[in-house]
Amino acid sequence: MSVTSIDKDLDNLTLVLIADFEAPRERVWELWADPRLLERWWGPPTYPATVEEHDLTSGGAVTYFMTGPEGDTHRGWWRVESVDPPSALEFTDGFADEDGNPNPEMPTTKVQMRLSEHDGGSRMELRSVFDSREQMEQLINMGMAEGLEQAVGQMDALLAG
Amino acid sequence: MVVDHWADDALDEVFHALADATRRDILRRSVAGKLSVSRLAESYPMSFAAVQKHVAVLERAGLVMKQRRGREQLVRSDPEAVHRAQQALDELEAAWRGRVDRMSELLAQTPGQEERNPRTGETR
To answer: Which residues contact A54 (CB under 8 A, 6 or more apart)?
Structure first.
């Protein structure tokens, strides 16, 4: 298992995750920096992501859509706040309407990702914060991407097997 | 929360929890803010363990929630709000755990041999 620790702060609506990989930091960075690799892990298997725009520069944008089992598509975007390859990336992650325009009524989360060399491999520290309690509530109300539940279901199946 | 929707046994728990003056007092205090169990225990002429039991009764009834903050256990009411935050963060956690698992799988493959997205078959 690569997830080393998870810390959830209910008051500040923050998730902090630490994951250790055996691979060198540059290869982990590539998973973020190469759109063809990014789309292989960003969405759950039932909602794979297709990355369109991918501009990892400060102020740049990443746009993507996830395709559901019924062919339904769900658009999302990142607004890149800061980038320091291969060690740091900060962005805001949100939803978009069908035309790809950011949907202000949908929740956004701020993501801070740091990569460091660790124990012959690399360590990824990821902090994800809901922008507001209202937005967090919206996320629950829309049931979040159904894919998440399915991803968890798949994990359960693996664990049970 | 609407009482009509509560199952009978859940109501029993609530009324049982509220049938005690100390527990009603703990509930009032935890509505006002977050207090640690040890801080609460200082306010009553009883042992820490006894106060902890009262808190446990309130917790079972869904009236308060305990939340770990460092070495302390904080007691707070408005369990619905806490529960919803928990739910949202649990979902976020599940999403990121899935992502990290997939990242590991990709990293386990030989560099340069990463396949393309199997679903869209993109080979751009």
So the answer is: A35, A38, A62
